[in-house]
Amino acid sequence: MEESGITFKATANGLILIMKEEEDFEAILEQISKKLSAAGKFFKGASLDVKYRGKILSEAQEKLIIELMEKKTGAKIKSLQLDTTEPEQVEVAHTDSIPSMHKVKKLFFKGIDEGITKFYRGTVRSGQLISFDGNVIVIGDVNPGGEIEATGNIIVMGSLRGIVHAGADGNKEAIVAALNLQPTQLRIADIITRSPDEEETRNVLVPEMAFVKDDMVYIERFLPQYK
Amino acid sequence: MSEVIVITSGKGGVGKTTSTANIGTGLALAGKKVVLVDTDIGLRNLDVVLGLENRIVYDIVDVVEGFCRVKQALIKDKRYDGLYLLPAAQTREKTAVNPKQMIKLCNELREEFDYIIIDCPAGIEQGFKNAIAGADKAIVVTTPEVSAVRDADRIIGLLESNELRNPKLVVNRVRMDMVKRGDMMSIDDIIDILAIDLIGVVPDDEKIVVSTNRGEPAVTDNKSLAGQAYRNITRRILGEQVPIMDLQSEEGFVFKLRKLFGLKSS
Q1: Searching chain A, which residue's CA lies closest to the CA of residue B152?
Q2: How far apart are CA B127 and CA A127, in angstroms?
Q3: Diameter of chain B by CA atoms?
Q4: Which of B28, B48, B122, B177 is the most exposed place for a label (fewest CB within 10 A)?
Q5: pLDDT, tens only, A81-115
Q6: Which secondary structure element, helix H or strand E, spans residue A132, and what is its range?
Q7: Per the CB < 8 Å rule, is B154 touching A126?
Q8: Same domain for A132 and A207
Q9: Residue A92 lies in a domain
């Protein structure tokens, strides 16, 4: 599904335009145009106060948006201003930031010691995505091209060769463990890392666990080694 | 009971059409009534590989559109009793057929044939969806290369989510000398990742190129190792237990001499 760089929210007081900070302005204009073409006639003849957040706009950019919106909806845009009220609800916090002038409480999944867990049996194949708000345990392998995303821990009872993202909503305490830890990419919270380049594929299983300490990913064996 | 088997891979060029032609011919030589269906609409090759391209009058699109009956489109191969081909269209695209039409077509073919082998096009889009629609079983073909195995893995995932469980694996174009050197993935490496049952290993063989150009499937050639491999696959499909061919035995006279004297190979 295509993620949009903009969202419109309607409130009692008018419209709020929420933009993704990293989208560039051209893309935003295009998406506004698309969204309004689909639903715009609803506002025809109305008089709207529009607030925006997510991106800082210059006066010239504000003017362009007003023009575009008036053209597409047939409404009169009374004002277009930066939204300074605190948002009442936070969606799952993406690590892409909303500018810090808005205080946003990051409530991430706390159940990494004891918490809700999804058990997946079988191999996760290339192109398959397992996404869960909680911990995930895969009883099987994760093949390259397969993806696991969890707000909690990720445990793979097999070879982990795909992409994993633990603590996906920002919890750096989350861990990734596998009987054979060889992911193409490993992410915990907002820290992304990959295997060192010299590592060859192994034939023996080496159970290892990845965790974050001081904003760096460490990998350790979690079973005692016998001679 | 008829069986509809789809031969697929994801990656292009790994040997689906070659496998379809050889397995189909092998089954016909074993006395079965077989129809090969080419679903690669727009890029048809199965007819070329079988040497039947100048006999095509009607094709699969004509059949599903009701322009002709199935029997009119089927081409009987005069060399092998029981082998028929339903060719693809060359001037149309894969959107000319939809999965519902394929299911209807397969059901019609089931009444006449023991085996219906469907040659799937490369990719995961409409062509793939059409090809698997009417199938009971699947055979996944791959070569011992990382990219091919990656794509095969994807395909197996898609087959499983379309209720085509337990696909069988054919590993094609294996070069044992490279595997021994460590330059090529071994069969075990591949099975480790794909985790499905192996139904055959086909060595890289020059005679495949020759047979394709001539339109004579290698399975009929007694001197071809690939042909032998396809004969074994055919027997396995028919339920026989056949051990995997020892591909390392294709060495020259000197190797055999050294073996005779108990000297280790280099």
Answers
A1: A126
A2: 18
A3: 68
A4: B177
A5: 887 765 544 444 444 444 444 444 467 788 888 99
A6: strand A129-132
A7: yes
A8: yes
A9: no
Domain residue extents for chain B: 3-260
Name chain B contacts of A141, Cβ cutoff 8 Å.
Answer: 193, 195
pLDDT tens digits along B102-116: 999 999 999 999 999
**Within its chain, how far is the Cα of B106 from the centroid?**
18
pLDDT at A200: 64
List the CATH number of the domain containing A48.
3.30.750.50
For tokens 């001679």, the residue is A227
Number of domains comprising chain A: 2
d(CA B238, CA B5): 13
Q: What is the pLDDT of residue A99?
A: 47
Q: For residue A145, list chain B residues with Cβ-Cβ distance below 8 A.
A: 150, 153-154
List the strands of the sheet with A6-11, edge to edge: A6-11, A14-19, A47-53, A76-82
Maximum Cα–Cα distance across chain A:
81
φ, ψ for residue A176, nearest 5 deg: -125, 130
As a whole number, mean pLDDT of residues A36-64 equals 80
Do A71 and A123 belong to one domain?
no
CATH domain B3-260 topology: Rossmann fold (3.40.50)
Domain boundary among A82, A108, A137: A82
| DSSP output for B66-85 | TSS-HHHH-EE-SSSTTEEE
In order, the DSSP letters of A156-217 are: EEEEE-SEEEESTTS-TT--EEEEEE--SEEEETTEEE---TTPPPPSS---EEEEEETTEE
Q: Is residue A96 part of a domain?
A: no
* Cα B245 to Cα B242: distance, rounded to the nearest angstrom: 9
Q: Which residue is closest to A160 within chain B, CA to CA? A: B193
For A145, the 3-state DSSP assignment is coil
Put simply, whether B153 touches A (Cβ < 8 Å) is yes
Domain range spanning residue A35? 6-82
CB-based contact, A205 to chain B, within 8 Å: no
Q: Give domain status of residue A99, yes or no.
A: no
In angstroms, the separation between the Cα of residue B159 and the nearest Cα of chain A is 11
Which has the minimum average pLDDT: A51-60, B5-14, B232-241?
A: A51-60
Q: Is A145 in contact with B154 (Cβ distance < 8 A)?
A: yes
Same domain, A71 and A145: no
Residue of B nearest to A126 (CA): B154
Torsion sign, CA atoms B104, B108, B111, B117: negative
pLDDT of residue A110: 80
B51/A66 Cα distance (integer angstroms): 66
Instruction: Mark which of A28, A62, A82 sits at the end of a domain.
Output: A82
Residues of A in contact with B151 (CB under 8 A): 126
Q: Where are the beta strands (DSSP E) in chain B?
A: 3-8, 34-38, 75-76, 83-86, 115-119, 137-142, 168-174, 197-203
Residue A226 is assigned to a structural domain of this protein = no
Size of the A and B interface in Cβ pairs below 8 Å: 27
